[in-house]
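Ticket #4471: structure export looks truncated?
Reporter: QA, pipeline team
Priority: medium

Steps to reproduce: submit the single chain below to the structure queue and open the exported record.
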Amino acid sequence: MSGPVTEALGNGTSAGSDLGVKYAKFRDASHAALGETMTAQIRHAVARVHGLENAPGDTAPIEAPPEDAAWLAYARRMPFEHTAITDEEAAAVVAELGEERYVAFSVVAALADAECRAAHVDLPGLTA
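Actual output as written to the record:
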């Protein structure tokens, strides 16, 4: 998967390319921990909060997540309400996903948020 952050990090310099590769490996490991479907659902939920149809780099339609999933509501709050998420809400997501997958979930949501923000300001264009 690609996106504006990966593209910006792989700007042609050896240091930039190396950073881009490391970023992609980190991102991909988080995606693998959750699986393709859940990753797409999280990225889509975050993109919708940003007013985008899909997260940058995503083109395939997503399978609808269960509306009662605690993690779905949590993902929607990550971009602009993360400081208002309570310990109880976080604990509900941990109970649903497990600690390891909760960490991967948090990474996926945070990176999706960063990629959506980068898309809004044309981050790859800023690195030229």
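Status: closed, not a bug. The export was complete when the record was re-opened. Leaving a note from the reviewer for reference: The chain has a mean pLDDT of 83.
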